[in-house]
Design goal:
By secondary structure, the protein is of the alpha+beta class. It contains 24 helices and 24 strands.
Length: 675
């Protein structure tokens, strides 16, 4: 449960509602408040004691967290927000009772006292609600998890029929179980798709607005909804090991983190405490000397009450509440609030290549055939031979063939009979396809078969190899009939992410363990000038330190698996694409989705959030710096002294301005598609 100053969030919530209910009659029957609005409150026996009695309840009950917090700050000699609030409400309480008991003062601050307590309770409650906003968004997902799942009784095959299905509660699922997820149903636990291809809605986890295609070999996470066709999923993680549980752990860590801006607000409160105390002392001495004791007490009490930071109490909590909630709902998990604030100062973003700027898996990007061999036929034969292999390159070949078949302009593929499939260690695979012996493998396969590469495809394969692509040759009965080029494909969004960062005045660099020619090709396509290639995972943090040594603030963006040292070394560590591997301990910010455009989107949001924090702080402290001297009577020689009523109005207006300004943050988008 969220805590602040030793108090639980629920305490602030309950005290806020009770104090608000008591505040309304105090405001209505207060002569000062009635005079401000120009009405006369009803008079009846005892009506004069409504404000003192209810105001006292608010003081002792509603304000108790501030009184105890102020006492703790006083004992520790570290004055801050709590002590400043406690001082103001205590002075208002004593002065108001002295007025109610006709002890020589005319300072009825009951309505100001209760309003101040209500506003401060609201501010602290909102701050703790902000810390739990991400949890709330994820708890909303948890409520959408199914109560039970359809489990396949037999693990030997994927046969789906009533006799092979059983309905079991989610807690009874185990790793290795296979479940059927029907269209419109939700995935019961993290797993891998074994059969079927469907659109999967992961918006509640990743912030991705559109369903993503998931097929055999793809990972799916608990809570994701299958939109069109059924999937058979093998469970890989349950309970506390799921991505959702991992995210909750990260959120719990974020709730314990501190905010630099909040620390700034605390320092501002400490400054205002000394400022108010000093101003009150000077005010009292000056008015004793030039006026009367009544004037001195009146002006001193007015200074202390007006100095209380209504607006300052809301300045940071409101911005944190909005920014945290919006980030969480956009699939951005802020593990450390300082990381979000530091993101605005970043000079260079260092992207890991594999799995961040690229898909992290090979794709067939090139096809070369001998004369007389159709592209579709070559892919079909290669896919037939690779159909039973789990190797990433084999999956890429099968996927390329399936994609080709979906092309409406492609001729229909004839059905092939596949027999005698076998793996050739270190060479590739072979199979009998419609009576032909089809082999698929790299250059080692050609050497093993003593086969010659046809001159018709040599120029193309040489170009592929020059830029770091892997080459697979396809042989039919010992003769080369074509070749396939495989590369780790660049994400479609990466180029836009790089452009958006440069437009914001931020340098972009890339780091990878891949060969220099591979890195150079990717960098050239994306417009990245500085590249660190052939870097071991353990040495990536040294490159981050190198950039920092140039005086740069560095944001490191990686997949969070082998980039932990670099993520920890960077000024801001950002783990991207961590929706299915959420145990990222080194990143300050975790992007559950895999869209690199979220990085410039978050930088823009960080800048906007920080602007709002500063605007609110400047307004809140500026009000005090101006109103306190006026309340003290610095312009008394000119015939102007800020009255308690006028000061109260200005204080309320200041609070309204801060609240409205914070709400403008909702207009700032975190949508990667709009960077």
């Amino acid at each position: 449960m969220n805590e602040h100053a030793g108090h639980h969030a629920i305490i602030f919530r309950n005290r806020f509602w009770v104090s608000l209910a008591l505040c309304l009659p105090v405001l209505f029957f207060s002569p000062m408040f009635a005079a401000l609005l120009g009405y006369s409150p009803p008079q009846f026996p005892g009506s004069a004691w409504i404000a003192p009695i209810l105001g006292s309840v608010v003081y002792f009950y509603g304000a108790s967290p501030f009184l105890t917090g102020g006492w703790q700050e006083l004992r520790s000699r570290r004055p801050g927000m709590m002590l400043l609030i406690a001082m103001a409400i205590t002075v208002a309480f004593i002065a108001s009772w002295a007025t109610s008991l006709s002890l020589g003062l005319d300072l009825d601050f009951w309505w100001e006292l209760v309003l101040l307590v209500v506003i401060m309770l609201l501010g602290h409650w909102m701050e703790m609600r902000a810390l739990g906003a991400a949890s709330g968004a994820l708890d909303e997902l948890a409520t959408l998890l199914p109560d039970d799942a359809e489990r396949l009784k037999s693990t030997d095959g994927l046969s789906v029929h009533p006799g092979n299905l059983e309905t079991v509660p989610i807690p009874e699922l185990a790793v290795g179980d296979r479940v059927l997820v029907r269209p419109g149903g939700r995935v019961p636990a993290d797993g891998t798709v074994l059969e079927g291809t469907a659109g999967v809605d992961e918006s509640m986890l990743t912030g991705e607005s559109q369903p993503v295609r998931r097929g055999p070999g793809s990972t799916v996470v608990a809570g994701a909804m299958v939109t069109d066709t059924s999937l058979i999923v093998e469970i890989t993680a349950i309970g506390e090991e799921t991505a959702l549980a991992g995210i909750r752990r990260l959120v719990a860590e974020a709730q314990k983190s501190s905010s630099r801006a909040q620390a700034l607000a605390d320092r501002a409160a400490a400054f205002l405490f000394y400022f108010a105390a000093g101003a009150a002392l000077i005010t009292f001495l000056v008015w004793i000397f030039i006026g009367s004791s009544d004037d001195a007490i009146t002006r001193t009490v007015t200074v202390l009450v007006i100095a209380c930071p209504h607006a300052l109490g809301l300045a940071i909590p409101l911005v944190i509440a909005i920014s945290t909630e919006r980030a969480a709902r956009a699939g951005v998990l802020v593990r450390n609030r300082i990381a979000l604030e530091k993101l605005r100062t970043v000079d260079v973003v260092l992207f890991d290549k594999t799995g961040t700027l690229t898909q992290g898996r090979p794709e067939i990007t090139e096809v070369a055939t001998i004369p007389g061999m159709a592209r579709q036929r070559l892919l079909g034969l290669a896919a037939a031979a690779e159909s039973q292999s789990e190797h990433p390159l084999a999956r890429a070949v099968v996927a390329a063939s399936s994609k080709e078949e979906e092309n409406p302009d492609a001729p229909a593929q004839q059905t092939s009979e596949i027999t005698a499939v076998r793996s050739m260690t270190g060479l590739g695979v072979a199979a009998t396809v419609s009576g032909q012996t089809i082999e698929v493998g790299g250059p080692a396969l050609l050497r093993h078969r003593d086969a010659e590469e046809p001159t018709e495809i040599t120029e193309q394969t040489s170009a592929w190899i020059a830029r770091g692509a892997a080459v697979l040759y396809v042989l039919a009965d010992g003769q080369v009939i074509g070749a396939l080029g495989a590369q780790d494909a660049i994400r479609a969004e990466s180029a836009q992410a790089v452009r958006a960062l440069k437009q914001r005045g931020i340098e972009v660099a890339m780091i990878t363990g891949d060969a220099r020619q591979v890195a150079a090709d990717v960098a050239a396509q994306l417009g990245i000038e500085e590249v660190f290639a052939e870097v071991l995972p353990a040495d990536k943090d040294e490159k981050v330190a190198l950039l920092q040594a140039r005086g740069k603030a560095v944001a490191m963006v990686g997949d969070g698996v082998n980039d932990s040292p670099a993520l920890a070394r960077a000024d801001v560590g950002i783990a991207i694409g961590a929706g299915s591997d959420i145990a990222v301990a080194s990143a300050g910010i975790v992007l559950a989705g895999d869209d690199p455009r979220a990085v410039p989107a978050m930088i823009g949001f960080s800048r906007a959030s920080y602007r709002k924090m500063w605007q609110n702080l400047v307004w809140a402290t500026g009000y005090n710096l101006i109103s306190v001297p006026l309340a003290a009577g610095v312009l008394a020689f000119a015939g102007f002294v800020l009255s308690p009523a006028a000061g109260a109005i200005l204080m309320s207006l200041s609070t309204i301005v801060v609240a409205l300004n914070a709400q403008l943050l909702r207009r700032v988008t975190i949508d990667p598609e709009k960077v």
